[in-house]
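Sample pair:
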Amino acid sequence: MVKTVSIPSTQKKNTRNKKRRPSTSIDPVTANVIQGALENIAVEMGYKLMRMSYSSIIRESEDFGAAIIDQSCQQLCESRQSTPLQSGPIPGYVRGVMDIFKERGEAINAGDVIMHNSAYHGASHGPDVAFLVPVFLSSKLAGFAVTTAHHLDIGALSPGSCGIVDAMDAYAEGLQFKALKVYDKGKRNEPIWQLLRDNIRAPDLVVGDMEAQISACRIGADRYLDLIKQYGLETVELASEELMSYSERLMRNAIAQLPDGSYSAEGHVDGFINDPERRHYKIVVTLKVKGDEMTVDLTGTSPQCDDRPINMPLKGTVDCAIWLTLRSILLDSETFGHIPQNSGLIRPISIVAPEGSLANPSFPAPTIARFVSGNIVADTLMKSLSKAVPDKVSAGVGNLKVIAFSGLKEGTHWVHMDIHEGSYGGRYGKDAMDAVDTLYANTRNNPIEDIESHLPLRVSRYELRSDSSAAGKWRGGIGSIREVTFLEDSFISIEGDGHAFPPWGYAGGKNGKAARVVLHKTNGKKDELPSMMPNRSVKKGESITLTGTCGGGYGNPLSRNPEQVTEDVKDGLISKKTALSDYGVVLTRNGTLDKRATQTKRKSLRSKK
């Protein structure tokens, strides 16, 4: 019998309020002032981390998180620059640390700085390392200032911290930091820092980023303590609970608007396309709505892959993909404005996942490439939700990929991680977003100037795909094409998806287009590369072309405004041929709309369906 693990929602509303809410109330003005102060603390932490970091993945791509957590492991605020996949897991990191300390019988003290990255104790995956600085008011633990960030190397079997897609277990993915004190009561633990430098490629870069995280945490801890001293701990706690309750009420009200019922959908992950035993994994999501609570059940998802890192931690990846998707769809910012980002938003949501599945693996199954399958969890959840709120979802989203570039020059490693963006599907009333990072990752791309000024790489091409937008009343997003030439002998590895399964079209919209990666050899030959490829060498003068996935179309293409189709042709998004075949829009030689011929053509196309 399959054992199932769940992340439960809180108890029913009346019981919860009696147990959780303090007897003393707080006025809404004070609560909002404190919330604003908390949010500013997190934002300051984020900016400090960005500006002190050495690596472009933090400095430019903003692949980091910053948050204040209370002593009960509830998130009070997060940095707005944070990516959801970095900020969302932070409460889980803290719970994991406190669980490990309890098992060891170890105490948390003032002056401690704790490092943690265990994917089986709340972390998203190994390269996303967290640093925690506890905040004490006298002898009482009042909470934590926490930062997380993606590090470019943590001593895995090959250079870089992505594309390690041949890791056979968690040990092959790099160093594991399970609640280690890098500062103990204010004293620097030198052996740990030496261990880091001795086992990490590009140690100046990585350790420099880690020290930047600690500095940002200390700033956050000082600001949080100042806030507590200004208002008193009880008042800050009351304000925080009031705002979490407010966020919870918003989410409960949004869930209550959905029709009660069960909504299911399936999604698919490429896996390892060239390996018959490790390809084409399935994600199953069943959304169960009852009143103002919701359960997301992943029963039916493929079993875990024991020896390849496509598995997802339930806590740290799967839960964040689910929470982010539901919050974005049910409480979109355009309708609801600013909503406090805190743990109240997740209280009405339960998650169920069979233990030993791709969505809830058992240690030591590797997890380093978890973002690939996690994006499909988010996409499949959206597909299931479309059956309840079709006007609030997009069509299928084009997954992204990450390329690890590395090399060895004069005995020193250089490492670079490049996020090659995907694209969104068409949305009700709106065309899709082109060439953007997707769903729960939401990082930025690296400027070409930054790449070429620091690395032996040249970006010789960067543009949108031609004539590739999926047809729909609202068109699908367009993926980008980026070509990178190697100026020295180097190494590359790929961690991605979207080569085997194109994004789904919705409500009559067409499916999107799959991704490609091609290596151009110096002898003129071309190698078609898979979406998941372990580290391999490349030669000076060779180049790699990355073609991004295009999102699905939304709605019947024959319902798209012919004038808009005409503009799409003028903008170079689609060709005249596509305008005619997919949209039934007839253009004259000089590109103007022939309205009468278009009406006739569309009538003909509708009659064939």
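The two ends are 46 Å apart (CA to CA).
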